[in-house]
Amino acid sequence: METMYKEYKNKIRKELMKEFGLSNAYEVPKLVKVSVNMGVGSYKDNKEYLKEAEEDLTLISGQKALARKAKKAISGFKLRQGEVVGFFVTLRGQKAWAFLEKLIRIVLPRVRDFKGVSVSSFDGSGNYSLGIKEHFVFPEVNTEKVKYLKSLQINIITSAKDDKTAKVFLEKIGMPFKKQIKLKVK
Fold first, then answer.
1. Which CATH architecture has domain 33-173?
2. Of 29, 31, 63, 102, which has the fewest CB atoms closer than 10 Å, so is most exposed?
3. pLDDT tens, 143-176?
4. Could you give the CA distance from residue 92 to residue 110 in angstroms, rounded to a whole number?
5. CA separation (Å) from 82 to 66, 67, 121?
């Protein structure tokens, strides 16, 4: 089976050039980076949870997770400046393509009652975001060692200028969007 990146390079890029009527290969939408975030929420004071969250995100992404710290204190959330509020990883190049391939071909089909990802999660600039409620759908996570359930936020940043172009690009590489039901109005 051909990797997603090779398939994009050899086949999908040409299809997109034809579909959008582009003459320059550099105008074709491409994957810029994938950002994976894991917030710690009310567990910010639990050292065991923080360690497990960092290790799990590192396993899932294949790259060392970095701590995201609070920029300022917010008394309503009992948050002090400099406290860890989450972990993040930014994947580029081959790592981004490998993560996206794993997400589309392995992880999303493992999500319980999965019917496709939402079409309304584009940001207006050609980038797509999705959340995963249970991090153990990733094959790297050993479910027997998991003490705490964690959720992830995945941001797919493309070079597309608008959402429509980005959606076509993501559909071509295999992103399983929900089927839109069009109602006929009498």
1. 2-Layer Sandwich (3.30)
2. 63
3. 778 788 888 999 999 999 888 899 999 999 888 8
4. 25
5. 14, 10, 30
